[in-house]
Write a structure and sequence with these properties.
about 280 residues; two-stranded antiparallel ribbon; about 35% helix; AB_hydrolase_fold; Dienelactn_hydro
Length: about 280
């Protein structure tokens, strides 16, 4: 039976990063989209970014897309929430890093725990798989038809991490939707709401995973189960990297004032760049 690993207050934590965004906003496939191009403008290696609950306007994901663009990838960050992402003010409600998290008292932890059903519950219902996956599949299909596009990858974070894994299933086997979805390679960073083994058994495309040892949504037991499942897929290129002392959201929302946390974020970005360089070339 599949085990669903849910969301916690960690989904609402982290830091907003500052920097000049190099891309532009456009409309692609009916969705508002942040587009960041490589210096040569080539779409040969394209990446679709699947945002976390804070959406496509969140500065961190745009700055990260710019970083991938500098590495030679044509990057799209679509608004899969259709204007209904959670406000970034929630980032300040709970632990920004492991040190702060460990110093919280029982009252603060209880207060943070109360945020989950009140904030995430209704939002997750509104953006359930039946609503979100067709949007993501359709966008990938639209991108594939853009002239100059060759191989397409998907990278997802937290809420979007699971959908990156689903994209690694390949095209939907349902005959009603056999013409949409599926990328050439995927990269999921600290995914949430994953079903174990349900989301991993069908993986048929190259998949890279980045997870932290202090992730409240994917404990060591769950990570071990995922490792065992993927190890059996000897015909599918895959990798799993574990980041010591990193909490949920570290690849996108880490605190740059901490050298250790910034290095983990930088290393996870390099993990994705190396992965897609290998799989989309």
């Amino acid at each position: 039976m599949s085990q669903n690993v849910g969301m916690s207050s960690c989904c609402l934590s982290g830091k907003v990063h500052e920097g000049k965004q190099a891309g532009r906003e456009d409309e692609i496939g009916g969705l508002s989209t942040y587009v960041s191009e490589p210096s040569n403008g080539s779409k040969e290696k394209t990446i679709v970014f699947i945002c976390d609950i804070f959406g496509y306007k969140f500065p961190n994901i745009r700055l990260l897309a710019d970083e991938y663009a500098k590495a030679g990838f044509y990057c799209y960050v679509p608004d899969f929430h259709q204007g209904d992402s959670l406000d970034i003010s929630f980032l300040q409600n709970v632990e920004p890093n492991l040190k702060t998290q460990e110093s919280l008292g029982l009252a603060d932890k209880a207060k943070n725990a109360a945020i989950i059903p009140a904030t995430l519950g209704p939002w997750l219902v509104k953006h359930r798989e039946g609503v979100s996956r067709p949007l993501i599949d359709g966008f990938v299909n639209t991108v594939r038809m853009i002239p100059g596009t060759n191989k397409v990858g998907a990278i997802g974070f937290c809420w979007g991490g699971r959908y990156a894994i689903l994209q690694a299933h390949g095209k939907d086997k349902d005959t009603k939707r056999s013409d949409v979805g599926g990328v050439d390679a995927a990269y999921a960073c600290h995914p949430s709401l994953v079903a174990i083994p349900g989301d991993f058994d069908p993986v048929s495309k190259p998949l890279s995973l980045a997870m932290g040892t202090k992730d409240s949504l994917l404990d060591n037991k769950s990570v071990g189960q995922i490792q065992d499942l993927m190890a059996k897929k000897t015909d599918v290129l895959h990798e799993i990297r574990i980041y010591e002392d990193q909490v949920h959201g570290f690849a996108l929302r880490n605190d740059w004032s901490s050298d250790k946390d910034k290095k983990a974020m930088d290393d996870s970005a390099q993990q994705g760049i190396e992965w897609f360089t290998k799989c989309l070339s």
